[in-house]
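Hey,
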Amino acid sequence: MKYCTYIALFFSLILNAQIDPVEQDSTVVHYMIIEGDSIPVTSVDLNEVLVLPPLKFSDRKSRIRYIILRRKTLKVYPYAKLAAERLETLQARLEGLESKRDKKRYAKIIQNYIQDEFSAELKKLTKTEGQILVKLIHRQTGRTTFELIKELRNGWRAFWFNSTASLFDISLKREFAPIDVEEDYLIEDILQRAFQSERLKRQDPAFEIDFYSCVSKWAAPKATTSDKHY
C-alpha cells in the first residue's frame, strides 16, 4: 500500500547507518574511609523493574482486541527500535558531508537501497500495523515520523507524505500518548510484558512514561466472577 512507501522513505534514511558498539560497565566503585584507609566497595546498578498487574478483561471482545494488538505490536516494534538506533549515527554522517550535492547523492544511494531491500517488507504491513509503527517511532525517537522526514528531507515532502497517508487514516504526525489514549496504554503494557519475558529486547523510550499512572487511569476495575484473566 502507498502509505507504507511513505514510511519506508524515512527508513531509507536510517537503515544504512552503522552503529559503533560501545561497551558499558554498570559496576560502580565507592570508597569507605576506615581509620584513614580507603576501602573500595563495589556496587552494581540495577535496572528498575516494573511490577505489572494481572491482565483483566471485561469481556471476550476486549480480550481478543488485546491479543490482536499484541501480535501487531510485537511485529512492528523492531522497526521502531531500529529507527532509534540508526537515527543519531545517520545525522552525524549527514552533518559530516560538506556539500548539498554529496548529501543528495548519499540520500539517493540509501533510497535505492531501501527500494531493493526493505520496501517490500514494509508494504506487507496492514493499515493498523502502520498506525502502530508511526506511534512507536515517536516513542523511540521522541519525534514524529513527519518531523523526522521534514528534518531529513524537506518540509514540502513531509507535508505531502502526511496528506496522502491521511487518506489511509494514518497521520505521520501521530504521537505516542499512553496517558491520554487507551490503545497507546495497551501497547505500552504489551511492550513492558514482552521486555520482562525477554520476548523483545528492551529499549527505553525517548521521553518519560509514567506507566503506573497509565495503569491507574486505564486498567480494568476489580475483577468479578465474570472477568476473564489472561
